[in-house]
Design goal:
Shape of chain B: globular
Strand content of chain B: under 5%
Oligomer: heterodimer
Number of strands of chain B: 0
Shape of chain A: elongated
Largest interface: A-B, 35 and 32 residues
Radius of gyration of chain B: 15 Å
Number of helices of chain A: 33
Distance between the termini of chain B: 49 Å
Largest sheet of chain A: none
Strand content of chain A: under 5%
């Protein structure tokens, strides 16, 4: 064919130049004909035709070329696919070269991008059902992002970021989802797999491209980008996309804080919705992002986030919500420490309470936050009123978790302010008494001995109150005797010891009569048990009743 | 088996706590001398009962609590026969020889404080053989030797 062409055409370049449009039209038609040889030859001819030619010559055909090229990339015949691949590489090469050229070919690059990008995003590119086509579209996109300069790429950054975020999930191998669902069969945990997925997102070239897009964004782009990220967050279905969304919020808050600041409030509000994700890794990622965004958010929004965390902690039934609240607060403490310090009076009483949670992981989160921000136990004195007020609210809670947490909080408040040897000041004793009295009320529960110990500490150091207030003095006597009479075997050990300590502390009391009565009953029961090992195995104390309730 | 051991341990601890409560309860400033005598004669037999288990925890608590109790008691304290018999059982038991030295030291310290009460001087005589060599630890013997001399 080459020989025929050479024989017929004297000046090849001039002839092609003269009949360029006709050749192009014919090639774009014949590239999709029935005969594979024609399709393959059309691909090669198109490559040949556009290489080394000025973009302005074929600008109007560029969309068509890409479209047809992507169609034949999925051809049934392998040799056609190879030829189409070669054409695609030529097209990408032309595009990236014009992008690299900078300001000189800005117009050309813009023209190419504005035609190519919609095409790459369409069902012929990224959304194609053919894997090869999809991968080629991704590869091209990544090349575009890598080679473009800010002025060329900026108009396309919002859509690019949205699409790239979506791609994080759609390009994840399907096997990962399968393994995630059947983790136990492979001797793995879902958390381990999620960690690996997280690692893969971090090191993904897509993430790198997203970050480059963010680096190139300016104030005008950011406005559009902000809404596109929200759409991406809303539409994200897989873990990689969700984690990717949270990650770019972190990047925007740290590296682009000036541009992102106007949008921080709305994102901090939005994160409240996404921390409820079923997947713990996603939930934690958004919680961590909240801490970073908090750096830029207004006081009003930050207070609203704190209120949200409190609601999440106190209002929900499950452990996961309390865990999320802990994650958010810890992240604010670590990543927005200045803001945390400014609002510490709002945060610390809540953290002090939550660090007595019954769930170990929740407790650890709040303990870490507390120890990061507070110097020593005496700091409790600063927030004593707020802590006691907050705990008192939940001492009557219908939820055992909150009730017990509140009781332990009051107990530690007492212990913390009595670490030295000095007595409790009257004003502090006035604050503590109603709460510690309320915390002691009700049935015994696993861990109530901590509250009892604190109650005794209060009696030992709170002379300033019970010496003046006879009602308090009488109530202490009533409480300590009531507790000593409780039937819970594990708790009784502590209650009887406490009774002895109160006798030492309260020199105004003479309780020998009542203690003898109590001791007679206990000794009778204990000595009978001591002789009969069988009975000692039975423990039907009050926690059983609590559990039944 | 494990459950049984836990229960046994808990029983011992409950008995020890009961001993603490009992021996902490008399308030010498609120009771007349006769009431105090009466009170102690009711308390000591109960403590003896608790000690009948021969649990080390209970013995140690008894020694410490007696020490604390007699620190507050007036030197002219009167003990009736019941109280004396009970106190004798609490402080003198052949089994105490097998206790670790630290526990025997606690007992010795309690004895020294108890012997401050004039009505408890009989204990000084009873403890003499130990001072003279029956007690194998020199340190404990030295403490016991102080009984009745403080």
């Amino acid at each position: 064919m080459n020989d025929i062409w050479n024989a017929l055409v004297k000046d090849s370049a001039a002839t092609i130049e003269r009949h360029f449009d006709a050749i192009m039209d014919d090639l774009l038609t014949s590239i999709l004909t029935k005969e594979w040889r024609v399709r393959q030859a059309s691909c090669a001819a198109l490559s040949d035709l556009i290489q080394g030619r000025n973009i302005e010559k074929y600008e109007k055909y560029i969309e068509g070329i890409w479209d047809k090229c992507f169609k034949v990339l999925d051809d049934i015949k392998e040799t056609v696919r190879e030829a189409a691949g070669a054409l695609a590489r030529v097209l990408t090469g032309i595009l990236t070269r014009s992008l690299e050229a900078g300001d000189a070919s800005l117009k050309t690059a813009n023209a190419m991008l504005s035609r190519v990008l919609p095409f790459l995003f369409s069902s012929s590119g990224l959304e194609s059902r053919a894997e090869e086509v999809q991968l080629f579209a991704v590869h091209t996109l990544l090349q575009i992002v890598k080679k473009s300069n800010a002025r060329t790429l900026n108009p396309h950054v919002p859509e690019l970021v949205e699409r790239l975020l979506g791609l994080l999930s759609s390009l994840e191998p399907e096997a990962v989802n399968y393994i995630h669902l059947n983790a136990s069969k492979y001797n793995l945990t879902e958390q381990k797999i999620d960690n690996m997925r997280l690692q893969s997102v971090r090191s993904s070239p897509l993430t790198e491209s997203i970050e480059r897009c963010l680096d190139l964004a300016d104030a005008a782009t950011m406005k559009e980008l902000a809404s596109r990220i929200q759409i991406a967050m809303k539409n994200a279905v897989g873990l990689p996309s969700k984690v990717g969304c949270s990650r770019i919020l972190v990047t925007l808050s740290t590296r682009h804080n000036f541009l992102f600041k106007p949008y921080a409030d709305s994102y901090l509000g939005l994160v409240q919705k996404y921390v409820h994700d079923r997947n713990d890794t996603v939930s934690s990622s958004y919680a961590a992002a909240a801490g970073y965004i908090a750096r830029l958010a207004s006081d009003k929004q930050l207070l609203s986030t704190i209120a949200f965390c409190r609601e999440l902690y106190f209002g929900s039934e499950d452990d996961k919500s309390r865990l999320t609240a802990g994650d958010i607060i810890l992240s604010i403490s670590k990543n927005a420490s200045d803001r945390f310090t400014a609002l510490s009076s709002e945060l610390l009483p809540f953290i002090f309470l939550a660090k007595h949670d019954t769930h170990e992981v929740v407790r650890r989160l709040f303990e870490d936050t507390w120890s990061d921000n507070v110097a020593g136990p005496r700091a409790v004195l600063l927030y004593l009123k707020e802590i006691v007020e907050l705990a008192s609210k939940y001492l009557d809670s219908q939820k055992w978790v909150l009730k017990h947490t509140a009781a332990k909080t009051v107990a530690e408040a007492v212990v913390s302010i009595t670490t030295g040897s000095e007595p409790i000041a009257k004003s502090n004793a006035d604050i503590l008494w109603p709460a510690i009295d309320k915390a002691m009320a009700g049935k015994t529960w696993d861990g109530k001995e901590v509250v009892l110990e604190a109650f005794i500490r209060f009696v030992e150091r709170g002379e300033s109150l019970w010496e003046e207030d006879t009602k308090v003095a009488k109530q202490i006597e009533k409480v300590v005797i009531r507790e000593a009479k409780r039937q819970n075997k594990a708790y009784r050990v502590h209650a009887l010891r406490a009774l002895g300590k109160v006798c030492h502390a309260r020199t105004d009391l003479e309780l020998s009569g009542i203690i003898i009565e109590i001791a007679q009953d206990v000794l009778e029961e204990m000595l009978a048990n001591f002789e009969d090992g069988e009975k000692m195995d039975v423990d039907d104390g009050e926690p059983m009743k609590d559990a039944q309730l | 088996m494990i459950t049984s051991n836990i229960a046994l341990c808990r029983t011992e601890k409950t008995l020890a706590s009961t001993v603490t409560a009992l021996l902490s309860s008399p308030n010498e400033s609120k009771l007349s001398p006769s009431q105090l005598t009466e009170c102690l004669s009711s308390i000591f037999p109960l403590v003896v009962k608790a000690n009948s288990t021969h649990a080390k925890d209970v013995h140690v608590t008894t020694f410490s609590s007696l020490h604390t109790l007699f620190e507050h008691m007036p030197s002219n304290l009167t003990l009736n026969e019941d109280a004396k018999v009970a106190l004798d059982k609490l402080l003198f038991n052949a089994g105490f020889e097998g206790l670790p030295e630290a526990m025997r030291m606690k007992r010795a310290e309690a004895i020294v404080v108890i012997c401050r009460a004039t009505s408890c001087m009989w204990i000084v005589e009873k403890v003499r053989p130990e001072v003279e060599g029956a007690e194998r630890a020199a340190l404990v013997r030295a403490v016991l030797a102080k009984a009745g001399k403080e």
